[in-house]
Specification:
238 residues, alpha+beta, Aminopeptidase, twelve-stranded mixed sheet, 12 strands, 34% strand
Length: 238
C-alpha cells in the first residue's frame, strides 16, 4: 500500500484506502458515496485484495447506518460509536476576540501532529498520511492553526457543494477549556457560510462529553442516528 490514499474499484463500488497510522498491516477503508452502499460481496473482494497486499486488519471510516449494512454482512464488528451533529449556519456566535489564527503552512505539520497526538488516544491519532488524507477528503479544504509559539490548536474544515465538514479539530490538553476549540470552530463555520454552505456536520466520540457540550453550545444539533467505526481481521471468514 502507498503512504497516500489509494482507490480500489470492485465492480461499481469504490473504496478509499489508506494505511492506518502508518501501519501497512492495517488499512483504513472508506466507501466512496455512490448510488447505493457497497454490497457485502464487493467488500469481501476488497478485503481479499488487501490481504494479498499483506494487510491483516481493516478499519472503516465513520459510517452511517445505510453504509454499515454491507460491512456487517461481510463480517465487520463495531469498534467505536460516534455522535453526528449538524449546524444550519444561520446563527453563529462570536469568536473570542483574543484568539489569533492563521493559515497553516507545510512547516507547521510536525507541531500539528504533536498536538493531535496529545489530544487523542492512540486509536484516533493521525499520522502524516492521515493528516494529508483529511485535507484531501473534500473538494475544498481550509487548514487553520493558532498563531504564536507554540502552536496549540488546529482545525481542518472542508466543503463539497452546499455541505460542509469539520474534518479535524485538536487543541493541546493544557490549553483546553480556554475557548480555543470554540474559536477554531466558529472560524471554520464562518468560512463555510461565506461560501454559501447550507449545513455543516461534525462527529465526535460518544465518550467525549466535553467536545459534545462545546458543539451543542455553538449551535450544533445532535442527529438521531450516529456513526460507527467498524473493524475486521482479513483472515476471518466473511
Amino acid at each position: 500500500m502507498t503512504a497516500r490514499a489509494d482507490l480500489i474499484h470492485i465492480g461499481a463500488d469504490r473504496f478509499r484506502v489508506l494505511p492506518w497510522q502508518g501501519d501497512r498491516g492495517v488499512a483504513l477503508v472508506s466507501p466512496i458515496p455512490g448510488d447505493r452502499p457497497p454490497a457485502p460481496d464487493a467488500i469481501r473482494r476488497c478485503i481479499d485484495l488487501l490481504a494479498g497486499r499483506g494487510v491483516r486488519e481493516v478499519v472503516t471510516g465513520a459510517l452511517a447506518s445505510p453504509e454499515m449494512s454491507g460491512f456487517l454482512g461481510a463480517g465487520f464488528e463495531v469498534r467505536e460509536q460516534l455522535h453526528l451533529l449538524a449546524h444550519d449556519l444561520r446563527v453563529l456566535p462570536d469568536a473570542p476576540a483574543s484568539l489569533r489564527l492563521r493559515r497553516a503552512r507545510p512547516a507547521d505539520r510536525p507541531a500539528v501532529l504533536a498536538v493531535d497526538a496529545a489530544a487523542f488516544d492512540r486509536f484516533w491519532q493521525l499520522d502524516a498520511a492521515g493528516l494529508a488524507d483529511a485535507l484531501d477528503a473534500t473538494t475544498t479544504s481550509r487548514f487553520r492553526v493558532t498563531s504564536g509559539d507554540p502552536l496549540v490548536g488546529y482545525l481542518i474544515t472542508g466543503r463539497a457543494g452546499v455541505r460542509g465538514y469539520l474534518q479535524r479539530l485538536a487543541v493541546a490538553p493544557d490549553r483546553q477549556r480556554r475557548g480555543i476549540g470554540a474559536g477554531l470552530v466558529v472560524d471554520g463555520l464562518r468560512w463555510l457560510r461565506r461560501h454559501r454552505v447550507q449545513q455543516a456536520v461534525v462527529n465526535t466520540q460518544v465518550t467525549n462529553l466535553a467536545a459534545l457540550a462545546m458543539y451543542e453550545r455553538l449551535g450544533f444539533l445532535r442527529q438521531a442516528e450516529g456513526l460507527s467505526v467498524l473493524t475486521r481481521a482479513t483472515g476471518l471468514d466473511g
